[in-house]
Amino acid sequence: MRIGRPRQRVFRRIVLVPAVVLAALVGTPVSASASTAVDLGTLPGYLNSRPTGVNDDGIIVGYTEYPGQRAVRWDRRGRITDLGTLGGSYSQAVGINARGTVVGHAATADGMSRAVRWDPAGRITVLDLLPGGTGGAVIAINDDDMVTGHADAADGISHPVRWDRAGRITNLGTLAGGGRSEAFLINDRGVVVGVSGTADGRLHATVWR
User: Fold this and answer.
1) In terms of Cα–Cα distance, which of 122, 125, 206 is closest to 164?
2) Residues of the chain whose pLDDT is less than 50?
3) Whole-prediction pTM value?
């Protein structure tokens, strides 16, 4: 007789987020009894817009889309700024820190995707590649302008990396004998966390210091 696993009762907890917490996310006071939805709009000629990050000053980043994608920033008054590309057809902002530094990726004129960083004035900096690599993308930034993400290497495999404030790149590598690895988050000390494959083919939570 086949014995199945016992059924487990699943409980879902509903978490109510106070209005004052939501207000802190966008830097605008909100009363406990009511809130107001504000349409941030899109760039002219685009259909949709999506936010990907907001800092404690209420500055929001994201992108507009259709046709293509374009990295944008909204100030506290909701005014939108086109952050531009590297001469290619798309760009995307994925995060912003307390300084107002924005990170993301952008296409070059020949169609390659490069990891980039925009300073608070909107000036774009291209982050370094790994030796022999052709592209990269950013995942997160800390308040010291250090960035983590992934970049292609000469072996054709995407590696987790960390960029310092000057844009210099470090290959974070994998666990001994492992293959695939990904970086997810970075704290203000530059510690990166993600996942990495083990020698026996499993995937483990990993920290890079």
Assistant:
1) 125
2) 1-25
3) 0.80
